[in-house]
Specification:
With about 220 residues, the chain is α/β, with parallel strands linked by helices. The chain is about 35% helix and about 20% strand. The protein binds dicarbonimidic diamide (C5J).
């Protein structure tokens, strides 16, 4: 058993039943010149976490955790995109439109690929998700159950949207969840901090939080 000195109290897990879930570290969200930055977002808080996510991936791989990567993406014909999602947002550049790195949020396009530094390795799961949450309309729960996974560590972007939604979905399905606080980021740092606080309030209502260094210490 590994014990992490987490907030709001120690988090325990067995590596054989734990997965690291890295949410949406895709070029269009994180890279300067991608969809996120073209919409006027400052991507620096997101690019800053890339080395930390790389170290977290290395830690998970060294210790035999299952690694799951997600991408927010849609089929090229957008048949998996609800009309409400399609209409929402910036009218000048929307889902399926030609963006700076190919069609926005469309599977297979350059901007939809995971950053090369964080690329999935053989044997790791890659989940394409049409929603904000990693469980909605995907096979993730089935894949995790088939492998006996009970505990999930979360990283990725953005903290308050796809990471938070996925962690809440996981919590409702009975997984024990910890968010790795410095391996997640938001375009809005205040949202990042607020999300961590609301996930772990009331005795860990959705789960636990800890920085990478505390996880590294726990594995020693
Ligand atoms: C993610 C978004 N990945 N903010 N997507 O958080 O739309």
């Amino acid at each position: 058993m590994i014990t992490v000195d987490a907030i709001p109290y120690p988090y325990q897990f067995d590596s054989r039943h734990t997965a690291l879930v890295v949410i949406d570290m895709q070029r269009d969200f994180v890279e300067e010149g991608g969809f996120g930055s073209v919409l006027g977002n400052d991507v620096r808080p997101l690019t800053t976490i890339v080395p930390t996510v790389a170290k977290l991936l290395a830690l998970a791989r060294e210790n035999g955790l299952l690694v799951v990567h997600t991408r927010e993406s849609h089929l090229p014909d957008l048949s998996d995109c609800p009309p409400a999602k399609l209409k929402r947002g910036n009218p000048a550049l929307g889902i399926g439109d030609e963006g700076p790195m190919g069609r926005i949020l469309v599977r297979g396009e350059p901007g939809n690929q995971i950053l090369p530094l964080l690329a999935p390795q053989d044997g790791e799961l890659v989940i394409d998700k049409p929603g904000k949450g990693a469980f909605y309309a995907t096979g993730l729960h089935t894949e995790l159950q088939a492998r006996g996974v009970t505990h999930l560590l979360f990283a990725g972007v953005t903290t308050e949207v796809c990471v938070q939604t996925s962690m809440r979905e996981a919590n409702d399905r009975g997984y024990e969840c910890l968010i790795v606080e410095d391996a997640c980021a938001s375009y809005f740092p205040v949202f990042h901090q607020a999300t961590l606080a609301m996930l772990t309030a009331q005795g860990g209502i959705v789960g636990w939080q800890a920085p990478l260094s505390t996880l590294q210490t726990a594995f020693k």
